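Quick one:
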Amino acid sequence: MAFLADSLARIKPSATIAVTNKARELKAAGRDVIGLGAGEPDFDTPENIKEAGIRAIREGKTKYTAVDGIPELKAAIAAKFKRENNLTYAPNQITVGTGGKQVLYNALMATLNPGDEVIIPAPYWVSYPEIVALAGATPVEVVGPQESGYKIAPSALEAAITPKTKWLILNSPSNPTGAGYTRAELRAIADVLLRHPHVWIMTDDMYEHLVFDGFEFSTIAEVEPRLYDRTLTVNGVSKAYAMTGWRIGYAGGPAHLIKAIGTIQSQSTSNPSSISQWAAVEALNGPQDFIATNREVFRKRRDLVVSMLNQAKGIVCPNPEGAFYVFPSCAGTIGLTSAGGASITDDESFVTALLEEEGVAVVQGSAFGLAPHFRISYATSTEALEEACTRIQRFCGNLR
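Output:
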């Protein structure tokens, strides 16, 4: 009898976490490494939010809470959805989890059966297909190529839908590309989905507030209200509020789905941290002006990184609409040899040689479903980004 579960063989460890851990190990060994693998803002959590967490501790709000969130946080989430997305959710239509990833995980575990299919636009966040596979269902990748701005065409979505399709996962702005779907593009996708009423939609809107150059964020249930009853709108406080370690994600959706998500959570983690929940109340209800300030910093970093990468031999870097990632192509480096003698045969060998020879940690595009590319997170200091891009330029310039 095997000790480990068969389901474990269906998934692989997170590539982004693996790169981050490798960078930490090299730093601990004394190497000068610039880690651009983790999707985590370098800004500190705003003071008013931290104080709300401290106040919760001092007031003794340290006990178990309702499994899927305190009433005060659900009210703050409902107000946010109405204020920013024109979506109305009652308390029994809202769930709060330990990060957005748990909300996604719970929803998929609560709804998927063997034989079900989930359409996942590629490039994708590394966890989407792995969670689907762990649930025993089949991830179906639909590629949005670089020349289409890393966004899928409605015709490609239509072609991928079968009677077995249960979900479409839609992440905009995207991790790993930063690509954002315009309202018109979402309208065209919604038109396809209206023709297939058995397909549910899961929107990962985690980067909603991190958009640039006048891009206007929209979420699909807002664009097409007829999809409201089969859409789970997922969001969280991690990125816009620089609260990654607080671990609070949330979603709004049909009450029967939210109840099923709560059932899964009740037998896994139970409630998210009570302290983090009270901090999240302050995040959503409190001052929002710092978001625009941080967004402008991210925009300047994006512009710096895109400009410098496009000056590197063999690299082509599109200009993303949002998030804090770029997803350049390294196709022009394939077949060359590095100064250290490494053969660049694919994006994985590219990022391995870059780390070993220049001490820059990025993640290969194949981990996100599209090669040969690599992802850079520019959620770090401008100085580190400038030095990292200089090293990438040097690395590429020395390829022969």
